Amino acid sequence: MNNKFQSIRGFNDIFYPESYKLQYIENIARQYFNLYNFKEIRTPLLEKTELFVRGIGTGTDIVEKEMYTFEDSNGESLSLRPEGTASIVRAYLEHSIDKQDPIQKWFYVGPMFRHERPQKGRFRQFYQAGCEVLGIADPFVDVEIIKLAQTIIDTLSVNGITIRINSIGCPNCRPQYTQALKSYLNTIKDKLCDDCKRRIDTNPLRVLDCKKHGCIAATSNAPKTIDYLCSDCLTHFNAVKSGLDSLKMDYLIDARLVRGLDYYSRTVFEFTTEYMGAQNAVLAGGRYDYLVELLGGAHTPAIGFAMGIERISELIHAPSIEGPDVFIIPLLEEAKQKALEIALRFREAGTICEIGYGEKTIKSMMRRADRLKSFAVAIIGKDELKEGYVTMKRLSDGHQEKVKDSDIVSAFQHIKKEASASSLPARSE
Ligand code: HAM
């Protein structure tokens, strides 16, 4: 280590090619959000702590232990956003968007912050891409949203994914369920971790998403939310299932799935992978029909999901960008102007190119062109400058030709086409 400054644990510098992979995932997500007619919203990274406490719930892991909270110089308690949904509802209400048009479809891509123990697939700053539909209760929206999530995951070729769904009811039927769950949990209290023991009274649903093996085993016979749904919730859940069935989607009904945030109601879902140990959810979401109300608005049903960009990145091979198409080598100071003009013409034609500044000899420039895995070099020496041409050399086989300045773009396209028509490797190996 040659620097006394280090980044904070769980906060990572992300270099190429990982950064390119994340960009690739985000681009695919954006592409599908746009296709489904979602509009982008960018909310602040910092919000009043109270928003998350109210929105996500006091008895949740996120609010109890994972928020980055501090007082600013005005003595106001602020927190780095641990997720996007609460901020979105805040923005929806703050700007009276609910009054102009209650139906909104928004997406977001950006960093979230949780003070969790860092491990594979779990960071303190991580990136999510998510979407939210506000103002619609129709179960077909649930189906559409789960289908959208699946399409993104499939397009990214994330293999080994299971879609889990459940319904956790509404304020009408949840109390009966919570009561039954509490009674059951009290019978197995001794087998639960300290957090879960405490939560039997404060937030019993959370016991079901405790990740400790002891708690998972002890609660294997816990009452199921779906056995306590009121008729409206049951009808809604059945409609979601038959919608998924009609699209021939594979999914599993997971009675233990309750999600770790308190705002959910009715449909909840997670996309889990078999390849990632404990951090196995790559995408998760559900309905939150009462959050807008809880934060001060009128009753507004809503649903959404967020995907963990880094977790997906661990599971896929993104196409990597190859080296530049052309590496331009000006052999003398006076050739730099022409190098720049040629580079601009290449770029206008969509050809990726780089100019070999910073290297002193042709040998070192050729070496750099090689190291960058360039397809070709365009050399500009004294003769080339005087007579209005460049020497273009394909690096994979050393094929070389003189190309008139005016023909440079088409000549490059020609030698590229020639290489792909033959069995030449696209780049020098
Ligand atoms: P969540 O389940 O807390 O839901 O997070 C969604 C996804 O973010 C997870 O499935 C996971 O892939 C990723 N994730 C969460 N924590 C970490 C971490 N520490 N490191 C890396 N990745 C992580 C929400 O955040 C809800 N706001 C989703 C939602 C939107 N529900 C309705 N609308």
Task: Output the keywords.
alpha+beta, BirA Bifunctional Protein, domain 2, Rossmann fold, 2 domains, five-stranded mixed β-sheet, 38% helix
Please specify the SSE layout and strand pairing.
Layout: H1 18-35, E1 39-40, E2 46-48, H2 49-56, H3 61-66, E3 69-71, E4 77-80, H4 85-94, H5 97-100, E5 104-113, E6 125-134, H6 139-155, E7 161-167, H7 174-187, H8 194-202, H9 213-218, H10 231-246, E8 252-253, E9 265-273, E10 281-287, H11 291-294, E11 302-308, H12 309-315, E12 326-330, H13 336-348, E13 353-355, H14 362-371, E14 376-380, H15 382-387, E15 389-394, E16 400-404, H16 408-421
Parallel strand pairs: 1-5, 7-8, 12-13, 12-14
Antiparallel strand pairs: 2-4, 3-4, 5-6, 6-11, 7-9, 9-10, 10-11, 14-15, 15-16
The structure holds histidyl-adenosine monophosphate.
Task: Characterise this structure.
The chain has 429 residues and is an alpha+beta fold. It folds into 2 domains: 18-173 and 229-313, BirA Bifunctional Protein, domain 2 (2-Layer Sandwich); 326-421, Anticodon-binding domain (Rossmann fold). Helix content is 38%, strand content 21%. The strands form 3 sheets. It has an 8-stranded mixed β-sheet with strand order 1-5-6-11-10-9-7-8. It is elongated. The mean pLDDT is 94. Histidyl-adenosine monophosphate binds next to strand 6, strand 10, strand 11 and helix 12.
Question: Could you give a short description of this structure?
Answer:
This protein is α+β, with helices and mostly antiparallel strands and 429 residues long. It is 38% helix and 21% strand.
What order do the strands of the largest sheet run in, or round the barrel if closed?
A: 1-5-6-11-10-9-7-8
Extended strand count: 16
| Outline type | elongated
Helix content: 25-40%
Mean of all residue-level pLDDT scores: 94
